[in-house]
């Protein structure tokens, strides 16, 4: 029998131990990875992870396929950490309108490369996620940096990363009725879409930072899940005790 993320979300929403047990084993490593990547100086703080886990993310989550769930989980983790203690304000600010105007000459792929910079990814990671060489990704980043530099009074090489959390929040607030569901992006990522479907998707996303951010986050999810390994059982048990999750009642064994 296959236990799906739909069932896991339903079980967690109803506070059934089966759901939480599955979540801890399979997705706690993913939560840790997001913490390590986005908050490297805070990731070692064990109590932060506990606080993040205690904010009940499942109440606001609809049952969804695994990758869509993980993309939402990422948003939840970032929000919870920011709510716990907000990141420092950037020394040099760039808003999404300025970024949009500066990067107007770029293609969709080039914009995706630039956006991964706001998500703290190095050119090598960006290259892996977009299936291009790190050198190509680096060249595009340099071009984007020049365009941005030309549109700001003050500039530093980390300006996109420094503004990452604020740009991410701004992008996520920009959704329109034409914005695409996660499935449309996964169809492209998995090669299930037609040439025409892909063309239409790209046309919209090139001009929509909400979808561009969404697309990048889904590519990130694919990458994170590929590298993720289940939590060892002893650790999973320790987290269950910590969160007060009882062992599932296996009543069907006592027939
Ligand atoms: Zn959109």
Features:
single chain; 255 residues; mainly alpha; 14 helices; 64% helix; globular; binds zinc ion
Give the helix/strand class: mainly alpha
**How would you sum up the major sheet?**
none
Relative helix content: 55-70%
Please trace the helix and strand order, writing H or E for each element.
Answer: HHHHHHHHHHHHHH
Query: What would you call the shape?
Result: globular
Chain-averaged pLDDT: 92
List ligands, each type once. zinc ion
Number of strands: 0
Q: In total, how many domains does the architecture comprise?
A: 2
Q: Please mark out the parts with pLDDT under 50 across 5 or more consecutive residues, or reply none.
A: none
Helix count from the secondary structure assignment: 14
Separation of the first and last Cα atoms: 20 Å
Radius of gyration: 20 Å
Percentage of residues in strands:
under 5%
Descriptive notes:
The protein is mainly α. Helix content is 64%, strand content 0%. The protein has helices at 5-13, 17-38, 46-54, 66-84, 96-102, 108-118, 123-130, 134-149, 159-162, 164-172, 182-189, 195-206, 209-227, 233-243. α1 (5-13) crosses α2 (17-38), α2 packs across α4 and α7 packs across α8. The longest helix has 22 residues, at 17-38. The two termini are 20 Å apart. Zinc ion (ZN) binds next to α13.
